[in-house]
Amino acid sequence: MENQIRIKFPASRSGSYIIRIDKGLDPGRLMAAVCPADRYAVITDSNVRELHGKKLAWSLSKAGLAHDFFEFPAGEKNKNLENFGSLSEKMLIKGFDRGSAVIAFGGGVPGDLAGFIAGSFMRGIPFIQVPTTLLAMCDSSVGGKVAVDLKSGKNSSGLFYQPKAVLIDTDFLDTLSETEFNNGMFEVIKHGVILDEKYFRFIEENVTGITGRDPAILRDLISGSCRIKAAIVMKDEKESGLRKVLNFGHTVGHGLEGLSHYRTRHGFAVAAGMTIEAQASVQTNLLQPEDLNRIKALLVRFGMKFPTYNPVKLMDHIIKDKKNTRSQGSLRIPLVLPVRIGRTVIRNFSPEEILRFLKLPELFEGSE
Ligand SMILES: NC(=O)c1ccc[n+]([C@@H]2O[C@H](COP(=O)([O-])OP(=O)(O)OC[C@H]3O[C@@H](n4cnc5c(N)ncnc54)[C@H](O)[C@@H]3O)[C@@H](O)[C@H]2O)c1
């Protein structure tokens, strides 16, 4: 599979950029070409700085690129306005200006936070994504959604702000834990379910190579996923239509995350959400049970465990979802439903209908 993908937004000011995927990629050399700047602010978290900071610093220095690191403590709870303010302030004090660029270095948390800083610093300076988790490589670094969490809502303050490039070195995955790896795999599987049966089959046929982190298979896996996400965001940069299919599994998944007080990792919650939403699709006579079984089987191979939950309490979280709408006073909850692997439709349901889906006995068959 090709290791370079070009994202183009002909109708907007976002222009175009490349996603480059390679084992042992040299980001400094590429950066000088795709995003020239006087200085680079590397925004990263404490774990990534410790594990891989020297390697990136070496690549930047070798390319003659002036840079400084700006670090914050790892973890979702630090993707907040406090760090947005303090990191921007530090950049200003160090003399970063309109001629500078930001490098978002790490998983989705540094990616979203650094992108949000770049989008507002001096009213916007360029940025490059150098993702280091599977989730960030296959999902969050592509598409230009950047944000921080507010106290009462995840990703509630954010922008659409496209990077100048996404530079992916698969070697970073060598240090990623199995849990974090699988957390990303669930979003990867989602890409296959929503848009590409062939890609879904590629994952089914290469589970051993993927879990064994075979470099050639990882490269094809990541480029396949980026290609699917790129195809979607190019058609719908700002989520006014098609991009909504990326929310498969997320209506119930976000509810499960909330119910667990965010102790359940996002990907694992989405995996359970995809199972429930696919079961709802079978119930609605849209999806064949065999396709549901294929989806479930693949999720289980990457460690999905079906959660126990109280359906009424889960519903309390689902009805607060920001994607819900009102029609003639009644709440309508959208679900992305697969009709077969590679194709979905969006349907709106009442809270009562969703509650019935959450209680389906078939969901709990065979779960621990
Ligand atoms: N912008 C988008 O379109 C989009 C899409 C999906 C998710 N997200 C966001 O992404 C975030 C989740 O991303 P994530 O799962 O990458 O979280 P994360 O950035 O917190 O990374 C998970 C953990 O892995 C560590 N880590 C990162 N790279 C590592 C490496 N190579 N080796 C070892 N450890 C490493 C991190 O320090 C952290 O502890 C959420 O905030 C979510 O809202 C954004």
Can you describe this structure?
- The chain has 368 residues and is an alpha/beta fold.
- The protein has helices at 27-34, 46-62, 81-93, 108-120, 134-140, 178-195, 197-205, 207-211, 215-235, 250-259, 266-283, 289-301, 311-318, 351-358, 361-364; strands at residues 4-9, 15-22, 39-45, 67-72, 100-106, 127-131, 145-150, 153-160, 165-169, 325-327, 330-340, 343-349.
- It has a seven-stranded mixed sheet with strand order 1-2-9-6-5-3-4, with helices on both faces. It has a three-stranded antiparallel sheet with strand order 10-11-12.
- The protein is globular, with a radius of gyration of 20 Å.
- The two termini are 39 Å apart.
Which keywords apply here?
single chain; 368 residues; alpha/beta; seven-stranded mixed beta sheet; three-stranded antiparallel beta sheet; 12 strands
